[in-house]
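[scheduler] slot 2 assigned
[scheduler] job type: sequence-to-structure, two independent chains
[scheduler] chain ordering preserved from manifest
[runner] begin chain α
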Amino acid sequence: MKLDLVQFVFALQSNLASLFGPHLSSNAQVIPPTTSNFSAQLQQRWTDYNAPSFSLGAIKPATEHDVQETVRIASANDIPFFVTGGGHGVSDYHAFDGLAIDLSAFKSVSMSEDRSHVTIGGSVKIHQLIKPLFEAGKELPLGSCACVGVVGATLGGGIGSLQGHRGLMLDSLESVRIVTAAGDLLQASRSDNQDLFWALRGAGSNYGIVTSATFSLPEISNHGWYMNADFIVPASANVSFFQVMKSLEHGMPPRLAITAGIIYNRVTNEPMIAVNAIYYGPQEEGEPYLQAFKHLQPTMSNISMVPADDIMDAAFFRSFGQDNGACTPNQHINIYSMALKQIHTPTFESFFARLVDFWKEHPGFQGRWLLQRYANNGPLMVPDTETAYGLRHAQLYMYVDMSLLSLSYASSPGLECHIDEPSRNFEGFYTDTSLDDPVNAFLTPARDAFAKVSGYGRLAVYPNYARGDEGAEAWFGPENLPRLAAIKQKYDPEERFSVHIPVPLHWP
């Protein structure tokens, strides 16, 4: 018997356990919304900006059967649900109010006997794989933030500094176990449910709940030692810096990755450019590729070899570990992002000048402009049609986020996490929510300006960086949408999994 949603809100105050509990295992948790410290019992979200609401309570399943039953019961009663894995999403979920399905219990990591594959649970985070992979002499292109959920990152693409050499995370994905909107438990791979497996690799959140994923594992590069280099470049060198970044459009070595964060130092009242370079090989091979950055006369620099299990913590003068802003939950972070095929240096120079003015005009604003230049040799080894991921040709990923952080020259910047082909992001960290309107008014036209010269002829956005207002063409590419829509009709015709960057049921 279906209940009206309004009636159900009141009924859930006391009946959540009676509706779901009898069908779940003894280790599953049913958490009514009236529970003391309700939100603290769930996986915390990285940002509170446009966060979802869970006035109907939460379910923390312990088994795959629990997930199946939760989906079936919620669907039968028209209860909207929202699935949480690693909690690092940044999209706009403010319109969602319903039931949380928290996968925190799905945190297993199992290496095959011959160490050629690893199978992980749906909520495993990157930091849980770093040591096991290193000890096994294996590697994966895990990205740059240790607190990000592996499965969620993979389904949206899985960009990272190792992608030039090893491809995207979704290229290493061999199979998944997934609960569909009908409550069915399926295996999807290149041989099982092939259409679903294609769609999952790029638009995966639209088709079900992945309870586990299996990845193939290549041998670790350079016996597990990577070159890490950090530079602080003076803001006065910004024009030359953008020219250096543009020069990487042609012939970037596949083992090289560059991440740059442009921030404002509130202690010295001046902007600065922090650069991190990783080379997945010996220093004598990698260091010559850094000459252009050395010529920018950095005020600080460090080049060293570090073990693979230390590479994330070593970045940016060791200011990038789990305890920096990239992994602190419940910050107010407002992100604008895009993917680029090319760098139009006049647009970069113009935006830099306007961003500096914005920093000066708004002392409470500590936004960061992040540029992630990863080689795309690895992604391009896989045909565009092999997966639903539409950004294999990207040269740069970037974003600007707005938040409130206290950064000093001496301590070096703590920067965000995300990377792949040339990408750019505008990250906004701040606690004064009255800045939301001026930040949006500043960054919306800036994003439009970059989109015009991106090389795509339209706005293109890495799905895992999407803020939610860009549209399906920006997230998935127009060439993929007809097939994605058909698969959506097959596996989720009632759009149960359409809270996050939804694939439309029909296209065009």
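[runner] end chain α
[runner] begin chain β
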Amino acid sequence: MAGGPDYGALGINFKCVRIMQALCLISVIGMTANFISMMVSSSETPPNVLIGTLSVTCIAVIYCVITGILFLDNILPFLICTAVDSLLLIALVVVAVTVGKPLSYVNCQAIGTANDMSSAYDFTMSLGDNINQSGGQLDYTTWVGTTAPTCLEMKSIWGLSIALCVLFAFSSISGACLWRRKAALTPKGKDIEG
């Protein structure tokens, strides 16, 4: 994001945080979609926590792109941006807690690693055993425990969700500060949001 209005260090901070948010969100979308794809290819219904994660991150990445463009054109309403960042922060905290609650007890190294050829076989065999034991219903934690790479992928989603919470808290605070700065620089009688 080169160019754009000159808001000093706050403006640079806002642009950098938006870029990092977009990169984290795209990574979470890719890993979550891969995880859901594995479930669907095995004729399983993905759990609500993964669907929710994918939904929140897709909405958030669209929001990040739009606000980045509006910021560069100097037409971003910072007060509204601060409110939406705060709402996305709440949604991402829910995602991080919901995804992380069962994952915090899982040790991916204890699962063991497998080479690529046996990984798919081990995964399928473990999945079949778990489906038979659970009556056809699987929680995503069952999928996490099948192979170490799958476990690490889900833990990566959790870690990036936590990072996104920090980034959205930071952008929310930056947006509020930018709103105050823009309000102080705007002549009296002129609307600061437009």
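[runner] end chain β
[qc] chain β: The mean pLDDT is 82.
[scheduler] slot 2 released
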